[in-house]
Structures are given as C-alpha cells and as structure tokens.
Amino acid sequence: MGPAERAAALHGGSGADYAAKGPDALAARITAVLDRLHKELPRQPQDRVVQFPWGPPSLLLDDLLINRMMELAVHIDDLAVSAGMETPALPTDATDTVVGILATLAARRRGAVAVLRTLTRVERAPATITAF
C-alpha cells in the first residue's frame, strides 16, 4: 500500500470519496473535525512529536501545524487564482506567521538584502525573492 492509500485508510477515504458525497457531507465532516481539534489541540503537550503514517520525518506538533498553516495559505491563493476569484482574507495571525516564514525562507535562498530591498525599495528590488 502506497502513501496515498495509507492516508486514505487512516482518514476514512480519499478526496474523490469525499467529493462523491457532495458539498454538504464535506461541510459536515469539516465541522466535526474542527470541533474535535478545538477540544483536543489545547490538551496536547508542548513537546508532542507527530510521526507521519508514511514514516520519517517526524515534527513537533507546533511545527507541523505552522507548516500546514503555510500550505493552506499558499494553496487557498492558488485555488482562488485558478478559479478566477479573489483570494479570501485569512486571519491576521495566520498571515503574519506565514509571511514571516516565507520571508525567512526567501532571505535564506535569495539573501537578506534582496528581501529587504524588495520590501522597502521597489527601484532596487531584484527580479524575484521567491521562497521556493
């Protein structure tokens, strides 16, 4: 069984399975998962390590959640652009965290001066400061 099949088994189905049930069923599933997360996440120890079903690497729960937040923010924008829609506003705490991570990654990849110039002086900005 490959990673996608193991993940589908762990989570009760694949994306196609959820799509086949329709948007109301998906919304109900999301509501149930969010309710569970609101109850369970505050109870987790700060040093909890999460092991992925497909094996290494493992991450601290806080790092995993920050990583997922970044993925959601980036992919929400991807989906909105693909659908020809405005990207919905995300919570400020989330965007502050995501922009901070992306700025750090961009500075490591492109150099801190390039990021600084792009954020402050358009006339001195390099062509790109992409984080990836």
Mind explaining what this structure looks like?
The chain has helices at 3-11, 15-21, 23-40, 61-82, 92-110, 112-120; strands at 49-52, 55-60. The two termini are 30 Å apart. The protein is globular and about 50 Å long. The chain is mostly helical and 132 residues long.
Q: Mind summarizing the main beta sheet?
A: 2 strands, antiparallel
Number of helices: 6
Share of residues in strands: 5-15%
- Rounded to the nearest angstrom, the radius of gyration is 19 Å
User: Segments where pLDDT lies below 50 for 5+ residues?
Assistant: none
- The helix-strand sequence is HHHEEHHH
Overall residue-averaged pLDDT value: 89
Let me know the number of strands: 2
Helix content: 55-70%
Which helices and strands occur, and which strands form pairs?
Blueprint: H1 3-11, H2 15-21, H3 23-40, E1 49-52, E2 55-60, H4 61-82, H5 92-110, H6 112-120
Antiparallel strand pairs: 1-2
In short:
This protein is mainly alpha-helical.
Task: Pick out its properties.
mainly alpha; two-stranded antiparallel sheet
